[in-house]
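Human: Here is a favour to ask of a fellow structure person. Comparing notes only helps if you start from a blank page. Give me a protein, with the fold worked out from its sequence. Please set it down just below, with no commentary around it:

Assistant:
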Amino acid sequence: MAEHIRKCMDDQRYTIEKNCPVCRKEVILPRPPKFSLQDKYAHLRRESKKKELQEKGLF
């Protein structure tokens, strides 16, 4: 079985283990979600991106 590389969001370190070797916190898989044409959350991402751009004064 293939191992996937994981990332600790606190230390920004990559590892294959389930917990970070430095801080011992649980790590995540840093892969994007699978693409789907029936994207249920697209409108939420667009609203979030629009709000972020408005806060920066770019929209």
Summary: The radius of gyration is 16 Å. Residues 42-56 form the longest helix (15 residues).
